[in-house]
Amino acid sequence: MNEITIPRPNDLDAFWMPFSDNKYFKGTPRLLARAEGMHYFTPEGREVLDGTAGLWCCNAGHGRREITEAIQKQAAILDFAPTFQLGHPIAFEAAARVADLTPDGLDRVFFTNSGSESADTALKIALAYQKAIGQAQRVRLVGRERGYHGVGFGGMSVGGIGPNRKQFGAMLPYVDHLSATHLPDRNAFSKGQPEHGAFLAEEVEKLVALHGDTIAAVMVEPVAGSTGVLVPPVGYLEKLRELCSKYGILLIFDEVITGFGRIGNYFGSERLGVTPDIITMAKGLTNAAVPMGAVAVKNEVHDAIVTGVAGGIEFFHGYTYSGHPLASAAAIAAMEIHVREDLPGRVRAIEPYWEEAAHSLRAAPGVIDIRNHGLIAGIELQSTAGKPGDRAMRIFRRCFDDGLLVRVTGDIVALSPPLIIEKSHVDRIVTTLGDAIHKEAA
Questions:
Q1: In this model, does residue 9 exceed pLDDT 80?
Q2: CDD domains from the xrefs (predicted)?
Q3: Is the whole-model pTM more than 0.90?
Q4: pLDDT tens for residues 216-231?
Q5: What is the rounded distance in angstroms from the CA atom of residue 153 to the CA atom of residue 173?
Q6: Among 97, 64, 51, 74, which Cα is nearest to 287's?
Q7: In order of start, what are the domains of the chain with their CATH numbers?
Q8: Radius of gyration (C-alpha) of the chain in whole angstroms
């Protein structure tokens, strides 16, 4: 068991916490001290079942010895090497391992350090590609309402979460959005992909009619996670792919959440049967042991940019830590676990049990919708009048105090446990969450 003994913090002021109610937390802190398998442990040693794989990212469970040893070994051999005009072998090996898992034809991999950086990188690649093929007028980027593509200005602009945008004023110019695919009046309590809503993809044609041949790319999540598990309607992604191809628009799938087994294939595009031109990833890539992201690109997109320049730098973009040796080692070890233990297959095997367990909460007080796909579920609650998000936050805190970590977004409880989950863990998640919903009904 890997454990670092540290005193309980007695001064919480220095750390400005991300996406947090800092004032509330620092008055009533809830701390995690170590993790192993399916569980976190508090500084006092209390066990907390992880119902969210950290932040959608510890897909193989916590404390995986293989990943720890790979990082330790690599740190002793080569702690850092630049990848600007130089290279080190393990970054190339990591990229090849990623390419082995991505859909056929997406064999070129650009490394980043996070999902946010992957989103901005993908958008830059799309713009560079259009310019390389003589379509420099294609500068417009299209996202989707209720989409989340990280917190860089590119991903935030294309994203469709209001609170993430309104505090900062100006976003990128030349951005438009498709409608969200969530249709609760017709698709409430759907199991897997909902039946209604494929027509929403036809909005691409309206944007083409409005903007002409100036659209460079459309970016969407195959399954939107951070806005409450919004599963694409049957036929929606297929229609989106058809229209993007028809009008010369690149299709980008943000698979930061759906990548690496989350919905039963290595990538969600495979499970959903639609191949994009670019895939962004992060989170499960290293099992979150070391920060790392990546962008996988269709060969022809890469080749248009790289071969379109006679000499010198072809793509003026990158990060100091692109392909970092420790991150590369962690990624290789994590991908080996995914393949050896067939984690996507484990998701497929337990998915029916997970689905029925999640939907068993349908009769709980205040539950107005339940959505699921693969090993993800979203339980939507009726908002308390005048206090949006209050009910779900109270449930989050009660669940934690009762030994279960869940994630909330607005009044939606999102579940995304490690892919090593067993039926007994599913039962405990649903029982603990159900109890919390009943106790916090108001």
A1: no
A2: OAT_like (cd00610)
A3: yes
A4: 999 999 999 999 999 9
A5: 11
A6: 64
A7: 22-60+342-439 (3.90.1150.10), 68-340 (3.40.640.10)
A8: 22
Q: Could you tell me the strand order of the sheet in which 47-50 lies?
A: 34-36, 39-41, 47-50, 404-405
Give the C-alpha separation, 159 to 174, whole Å.
Answer: 13
CA distance 98 to 8: 39
pLDDT per residue over 55-86, tens digit each? 999 999 999 999 999 999 999 999 999 999 99
Chain-centre distance of CA 19, in angstroms? 16
Q: Which amino acid is at 360?
A: S
Give the Cα separation of 405 and 417 in Å (integer).
Answer: 9
Separation CA 232–CA 225 (nearest Å): 11
Q: Which of 344, 424, 417, 408 is nearest to 58 (CA)?
A: 417
pLDDT, one tens digit per residue, over 31-45 is 999 999 999 999 999
Query: Which three-class secondary structure string do you get for the chain?
Result: CCCCCCCCCCCCCCCCCCCCCHHHHHHCCCCCCEEEECEEECCCCCEEEECCHHHHCCCCCECCHHHHHHHHHHHHHCCCCCCCCCCCHHHHHHHHHHHHHCCCCCCEEEEECCHHHHHHHHHHHHHHHHHHCCCCCCCEEEEECCCCCCCCHHHHHHCCCHHHHHCCCCCCCCEEEECCCCCHHHHCCCCCCCCCCHHHHHHHHHHHHHHCCCEEEEEECCCECCCCCECCCCCHHHHHHHHHHHCCCEEEEECCCCCCCCCCCCCHHHHHCCCCCEEEECHHHCCCCCCCEEEEECHHHHHHHHCCCCCCCCCCCCCCCCCCHHHHHHHHHHHHHHHHCCHHHHHHHHHHHHHHHHHHHHHCCCEEEEEEECCEEEEEECCECCECCHHHHHHHHHHHHCCEECEEECCEEEECCCCCCCHHHHHHHHHHHHHHHHHCCC
Instruction: Report residue 273 as tokens.
Output: 């049967």
